[in-house]
Amino acid sequence: MNLIPNDTFENTPHSDPWGKLKQFTDARIAIGRAGCSIPTRPLLDFQLAHAQARDAVYQELDVEKLENELNQAHLETLCVQSLATDKQLYLKRPDLGRFLDDESKHVLSEYQKNHKNNAKYDVCIVIGDGLSALALEENAIAFIHSLTEFIHAEDWSLAPIVIAKGSRVALGDEVAEIFNAKMLVMLIGERPGLSSPDSMGIYYTWEAKSGCLDSKRNCISNIRPPGLSIPIATQRLMNLMRQSKILGYSGVKLKDEHQVENIQTDTTQKLLF
Q1: What strands lie across the sheet with 161-165, from one edge to the other?
Q2: Less CB within 10 Å around the terminal CB: N or C of the chain?
Q3: Average pLDDT of 161-177?
Q4: Phi, psi of 233 (to 5 degrees)
């Protein structure tokens, strides 16, 4: 009887020849193998990333923290709530996240009536938790600081910054309509991926109103330290805002023509397959 040598079945991890590409992406590539399965470390990393994504979805937005940080920068804030009054309802009924509740509409309307006598604003910024409150807590304040510098330089009027809980993208339309704002900047937590639980998106709309179509929005996505940087995201948004102010529209007709320099590094030049 011929016996198969024990060393035929190797249990040590094998590297993948595509491993050099891992330095350029967070995607799960070239994870290697151990026997007929994947190594323990990549498996544990996957389970951790899955848990972080779930936590990001269910995390509640720390409204008080955002308010304090914005107020310290001398930015006025108002807080609102959608019709999705809790996280479970928000996930089951996406439609409810698109509308303000009655109390929030009253608060915004009264502010506009009593403080500004229904004056029009150039820009309205809404911070919405979306599917990742973590994304807003990590990125929104720094982005707003960057954006408001450009807004002041353009001499545009800025409405009070609205912090919205239980929000979908369309909720910002109602806010901008109440404030008579020409330009709506909606910051929202994007659906977490397995490598990006902290990704913030921007939806920009010219003359947003209730019932506004998604085709009238421009989106800038994946704003976070390992993704699109805040300075570049700000430049792209300002380019869209300046164009739309001239042309009088946003959305599919408005193209993002912002150019980013292509920086080559020694690493890319030495990439081997």
Answers
A1: 77-81, 161-165, 121-128, 181-189, 200-206, 217-223
A2: N
A3: 96
A4: -60, -40
**Separation between Cα atoms, residue 106 and residue 172, nearest integer Å:** 15
Interatomic CA distance for residues 151 and 245, integer angstroms: 13
Q: How far is CA 234 from CA 103, 133, 157, in A?
A: 32, 20, 17
DSSP string, 2-22: PPPPGGGS--SEE--TTGGGG
Specify whether the CB–CB gap between 225 and 134 falls below 8 A.
Answer: no
Crossing angle, helix 230-247 and helix 133-153, to 10 degrees? 60
CA distance 70 to 141: 7
pLDDT single digits (tens) 97-138 = 999 999 999 999 999 988 766 678 999 999 999 999 999 999
For 26-68, write each residue's pLDDT tens digit: 777 778 778 888 888 888 888 898 898 898 889 999 999 999 9
Tokens (6 digits) for 147? 């954006």
Residue 262 makes CB contacts below 8 A (sequence gap 6+) with none
